[in-house]
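Margin note from the TA: students keep mixing up input and output lines. Inputs are the sequences; the output is the structure of the whole complex. Example:
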Amino acid sequence: MKKLYISDLVDKIGSEVELCGWVHNKRDHKKIVFIDLRDSTGIIQVIGDEKFKELNPEDVVCIKGVVKSRPEKLINPKMKTGKIEFEAKKLKIISHAEALPFDISKENLDVTLPILLDYRSLSLHHPKIQAIFKVEETVIDAFREALKKKSFFEFQSPVIIPQTAEGGADVFEVKYFDHQAYLSQSPQFYKQIMVGAFEKVFTVNKTLRAEPSVTTRHLAEVITLDAEMAFIDSWTEIMDMAEYTIKYIFEEVDKRNKSELELLGVTLPKIADKIPRIKLREAQEIIFKRTGRDNRKEPDLQPEDEREICRWANEEKKSDLIFVSHYPTSKRPFYTFEDPDDPNYTLSFDILGRGVEWMTGSQRINDLKLLLKKAKERNINIHKSELYLQAFRYGMPPEGGFSFGAERIVMGILGLQNIREASLFPRDMERVDIRLSTLD
Amino acid sequence: MKKLYISDLVDKIGSEVELCGWVHNKRDHKKIVFIDLRDSTGIIQVIGDEKFKELNPEDVVCIKGVVKSRPEKLINPKMKTGKIEFEAKKLKIISHAEALPFDISKENLDVTLPILLDYRSLSLHHPKIQAIFKVEETVIDAFREALKKKSFFEFQSPVIIPQTAEGGADVFEVKYFDHQAYLSQSPQFYKQIMVGAFEKVFTVNKTLRAEPSVTTRHLAEVITLDAEMAFIDSWTEIMDMAEYTIKYIFEEVDKRNKSELELLGVTLPKIADKIPRIKLREAQEIIFKRTGRDNRKEPDLQPEDEREICRWANEEKKSDLIFVSHYPTSKRPFYTFEDPDDPNYTLSFDILGRGVEWMTGSQRINDLKLLLKKAKERNINIHKSELYLQAFRYGMPPEGGFSFGAERIVMGILGLQNIREASLFPRDMERVDIRLSTLD
């Protein structure tokens, strides 16, 4: 098995080694043929002979040769391996690639997003695309690590659910043997069940929503990072935990993904020592004062409002993230706890980052009677969610939790324009790997 | 927020603290009322006054009081906290529980599995049930950790897929907007796509199979632990990696779950220094010699054969795990690599543990033409799996991988009789949280 990676070569000058990877590109100088060889860790210039002429981009090869210093004037300061090159002795072609639909060796791919997704398996070969998903890996891993450090228990929440109770409309139906079942839109009910036994829990899931519109911020399948915690004294402790978690994620991305951030030319968003916290109505007031746009009676923030309040946080509070709390009861799920000091408004909160919602959370109702009353008021039938109700029948502490969208965080951190760029295999109304319009 | 857990108390003798948790049980001695208080970390005896009379099992309470040593003769050696008790000063009832359907404070629950699952949210309160899932958490976490140490990249595989190509029959259909889509039975295609770019990858998923039968070993929704690795020189390297991984998992369970294993009275299965590796035909020969049962012409092992070959490995090789390799081409998926030295048999392997399959793996075909030929021979149409085919068009190294079932490992490690015990919310033909027979 391959033992040596391109990123290992910098201190191997003079060694004879074997490298395996993909032909990134080729420059034919008659008797000498240069290729850039790429693997998952980097790219190196290889000096080959006439046998290299037959190579084409993305061919898989193994090459024996010697690692050399480049002559001073040929050093390429833009490449990590720019001070070295590889003198080939023996070329083995492992598999040939077909002609490429676009040039994958350009520093920036110049194809549209739909084309990039049509050829996802190829575009994933590009170092900048790989960098996005290396950051995403860290985001998810750091979420887990942050909460494990606080003794949270990780559990696996199911995909198939007996009933949709949270909102209803945007749910996918599954033919489940002779019955009908649904795909989970959120692990909400299950994390509440779990918190009633394990006290502090988290779970990483794909959640599935039949989003009936095509926007740059929504997907039908997203990765959600969910946490729930019991025995809280105040709802602000949930915000504190969410704040700790997102800061931990930022620190880990900063630590683990230096080269990816550099490659992508990205600096992390600013987080203030304490992320500013304002109520929805305060946000609306600020927006009104700054723009004259009067959405003060609206129950929620519009996309333009989200962008404006983030601009305000950036300018006035030196933070690219902001908590907005106290959404009206009518706009939040039935299980959301109402603020006793501010009736008709809930102990709920979002984190907005760079103009987009990254997280949503709240304290939950932990009294069964009240919960059933709230469900009934909204005509929500939860009789198939008996396990959820049991959690409240058999001893539920005061609790709450939050849910981050992994793709939203990655999009925000990297300043991507479309959430599809932050999803390996984005699903939406128009695409499940292939464009649905091409189906029979 | 709750700061102190019951497991923290052993060295807190003399301290005045507040504990929060659930009333595990109550012993009323007129003026003195004893309760066992339980939280997610343990149980402690609490000495209360008459106010404790009104408490019922699973009520949620917070109690201020003093941690005390128990008198010598009242020490309970069976409890971790058996040397201490808690003298209550002030009781706060947080929420009342309804009457329980069964006694949750028994050391062993004496209800049938269906009842236990009907009341899953309650049975999860039981320390032994919690212990199962704490072990499962470690299994999954250790899988990730083992492969991260070998520089594998973690990715998230999708749930919704455009086409079922692996076998077909046992797939769930989803109404996907105006189209039909399916639920992923395995991340196979996606991990092959990923390995073509990232070289070494792993992924933890819920995979979904419409298993049309009810057995003690199958679920409709399982947690799969998948890995895939490129640039292999030999298929045996894949087995080596799988062996390293399962050993790592065992070591971590042994390290992190000592108290759970003790509570459940379990010793880990034996693993030989090198897990024995035999071909299917050798296994069949051994079984024939040991039992007279002649399945030497069968293309696979029957459940009774799996148990027998595990008994043999235990007795003759001092190992509760065994690799069985070289399943016939016809019994393995179309993408499986055939052994050039043993035609009609594949470079495929399973790990059987304590009589059940825990893992399956193989080297894969990495040549597009051959892959298409094999698909065609089986009448498998993969035209909707264009991204999968692209992976081979644009440079695929020699590669292979494996897939563990998390519940199977937990079942095996803990000696559980039914896989449903190893699933938090088991789904099968008869149940999705509630029994489907109770639905309209």
